[in-house]
Amino acid sequence: MIRLGLLLLVLPLFVLMGVYFWELNDVRACQLDGGHWDYIESVCRDAQQPFVSWLERSPLLVNGGMLLSVVGLVMCTVGLYVKRAK
């Protein structure tokens, strides 16, 4: 139970960070070229675009990842608390 809990605790965070930094790389490249990033369409535009947070664009990914991490934390806590059967 502890191994599965640790996997559920850590893996969603790495997935979320990976997706976030992948998009951040595209945003930064667009800004260095003098453009403005359209967060809704995920394309580089010439005109100014409004900022739309990642939570508003991908609520299932963000909330689901955090929920899996909390489930993993609970599983680790229960696994450490309960004595192993011999």
Protein described:
Helix 1 (2-32) packs antiparallel against helix 3. The radius of gyration is 19 Å and the shape is elongated. The two termini are 15 Å apart. It has helices at 2-32, 54-57, 59-81; strands at residues 36-38, 43-45. By secondary structure, the chain is mainly alpha-helical. It contains three helices and two strands; from the N terminus they run αββαα. The protein has a two-stranded antiparallel sheet with strand order 1-2. It has one domain (1-81). Helix content is 67%, strand content 7%. It comes from Vreelandella boliviensis LC1. Keywords: Membrane, Transmembrane, Transmembrane helix. The chain crosses the membrane at residues 60-82.
Task: Describe what is shown at a glance.
This protein is mostly helical. It contains 3 helices and 2 strands, in the order αββαα.
Please work out how many helical segments DSSP would assign. 3
- Our estimate of the beta-strand percent is 5-15%
Structural class: mainly alpha
Poorly predicted sequence stretches spanning 5 or more consecutive residues: none
**What is the number of E strands?**
2
The strand line-up of the biggest sheet is: 1-2
N-to-C series of helices and strands: HEEHH
Mean pLDDT: 92
Give the overall form: elongated
What share of the residues lie within helices? 55-70%
Provide the number of structural domains. 1
Radius of gyration: 19 Å
